[in-house]
Design brief:
Elements: H1 5-60, H2 65-78, E1 82-86, E2 92-95, E3 113-118, E4 121-134, E5 139-148, H3 152-200, H4 214-264, H5 270-301, E6 309-311, H6 313-323, H7 325-331, E7 334-336, E8 346-348, H8 350-366, E9 373-380, E10 384-390, H9 400-403, H10 422-432, E11 436-441, E12 447-454
Parallel strand pairs: 7-9
Antiparallel strand pairs: 1-2, 1-5, 3-4, 4-5, 6-8, 9-10, 10-12, 11-12
Helix pairs in contact: 1-2, 1-3, 3-4, 4-5, 5-10, 6-8, 8-10
């Protein structure tokens, strides 16, 4: 079996054409054979009229049927016909060819026209009642004029040269057309292969034209979408590497500088203590950053083990508010959790969901001005709960509604000492529970984060 699609298409199309030619040839041959039989019947009826008239005239004048037939034999043979005289019992008593004496002639299938077979050759005949009785037959006999029926082999033999020529011409035309069609159909596939090889070779801008049959065009569009996603993923990966390099460089530079000061003896006494505090603080910052990255990666990969329990969101929100009570008091921000306790239960990991709400409330407190209130509202919406956390800060920067959930992203109004992982971790936790987080600016100032989680099923 050929492995090339173009070759398979070529051979398949050629096979269809050849089968069509054979079927067409057989159909034409059958139609011509039927036409020939119809023409034979018509010619027989025309031919039989003078013979029947001559025999009837001879019988009325007193001549013997055998003598009449003998006199007409040469004319009958010249017309490729034979003359028969048949008794009422349909037994042949006179045959111009002399081969069917005492042969029982079949009755006509339709009207006065019938057929019989002699030595594998079919004959078609027309019959007429004699005006007088046949001597020795016990009644009126029949006059029969017969002629050979068209033979299929002879018809095919006559048509064979024309059929062969037609088949050769059609096959040549089919070869050219099959080659053109196979190349036309497979050209988008070859373009797709070329685009895939260019992409694999490092040309990530390579795309293929969306052309050809619908299935091939769909494949090309899918390849372009895949290439675009891979390119975006690589861009995100490069941006992530750049971001993490920048984020790690700052604490590592501080650690390296203060450690070098201690080693060189430049930091002594209180200076050495301050240097150790900086080193400890920045080391803890690195640990938190690495742990946050690992947590996001595990949640996105589904490798983070999580419990599956019925959890009351109101209790988690109350716990998060209590954990931030001191921080909120220092910032002069009030937390309003009205109606949050009436939410139905969700199923998931209570620790991870608590971290999700803690991160959102912590983010809202950090971005709220002194004397403002962070409002937390909950609602039931089509088989899910929606928890809305609204602050009174400066709102989201333009175009930040999606980017703010990326790792290390910090807007212009972000807290400088943060790692930029809190919202990324919250989004990963929500998605791991079958939910999502969205963000928007609200009229009058501030931003609102909406967490959507499916309700626990009984």
């Amino acid at each position: 079996m050929p492995r090339s699609i173009a070759t398979r298409l070529f051979l398949s199309y050629l096979a269809v054409v050849l089968v069509g030619l054979v079927v067409g040839a057989l159909t034409i041959a059958g139609l011509l054979l039927r036409y020939e039989n119809d023409q034979t019947r018509l010619r027989l009826e025309e031919l039989s009229a003078p013979f029947l008239a001559a025999i009837q005239t001879g019988v009325r004048s007193g001549q013997q049927p055998r003598d009449i037939v003998d006199a007409l034999t040469e004319q009958a043979r010249a017309a490729n016909a034979r003359l028969l005289v048949v008794t009422p019992q349909r037994r042949v008593v006179v045959d111009s060819d002399g081969a069917l004496i005492n042969f029982t002639l079949p009755r006509p299938s339709t009207g006065s026209i019938g057929t019989f077979t002699e030595k594998d050759e079919q004959w078609i005949f027309v019959q007429q009642l004699l005006s007088r009785a046949v001597p020795g037959a016990g009644g009126q006999g029949l006059i029969v004029v017969a002629r050979p029926r068209a033979v299929f082999a002879d018809t095919i033999r006559a048509l064979l040269p024309s059929l062969v020529i037609s088949a050769l011409v059609s096959a040549a035309f089919a070869l050219v057309l099959a080659a053109l069609l196979s190349r036309t159909i497979t050209r988008p596939l070859r373009d797709l292969v070329g685009g895939a090889r260019r992409f694999a070779g490092g040309d990530h801008d390579a795309r293929v034209p969306v052309a050809g049959p619908s299935e091939v065009a769909e494949m090309g569009a899918a390849f372009n979408e895949m290439a675009g996603e891979i390119q975006r993923a690589r861009g995100s990966e490069r941006a992530f590497l750049a971001d993490i390099s920048h984020e790690l460089r700052t604490p590592l530079t501080s650690i390296q500088g203060f450690a070098q000061a201690i080693v060189d003896g430049e930091a002594r006494g209180d200076a050495a203590t301050r240097a150790g505090e900086v080193i400890h603080r920045e080391a803890r910052r690195l640990v938190r950053m690495v742990e946050g990255l690992l947590q996001v990666a595990r949640l996105e990969a589904g490798a983070q083990p999580m419990a599956s329990e019925e959890v009351r969101p109101g209790a988690l929100l109350s716990g998060a508010a209590a954990a931030l009570e001191v921080q909120a008091k220092d910032a002069g921000v009030r937390l309003d959790l009205a109606d949050a306790g009436a939410l139905p239960a969700v199923r998931g990991d209570p620790d991870k969901l608590a971290q999700l709400f803690l991160n959102l409330l912590d983010n809202a407190v950090k971005h709220s001005p002194k004397g403002s209130t962070v409002h937390v509202r909950g609602e039931h919406d089509d088989g899910a709960i929606v928890v809305r956390v609204r602050d009174a800060g400066s709102g989201l920067p333009a175009g930040a509604q999606v980017r703010l959930f990326q790792r290390f992203y910090r807007g212009e109004n972000a807290v400088r000492n943060g790692a930029g992982l809190g919202l990324a971790i919250a989004q990963a936790i929500a998605q791991a529970h079958g939910g999502a987080i969205s963000a928007r600016n609200v009229p009058g100032g501030g931003a609102e984060f909406a967490v959507r989680l499916p309700i626990a099923r009984a």
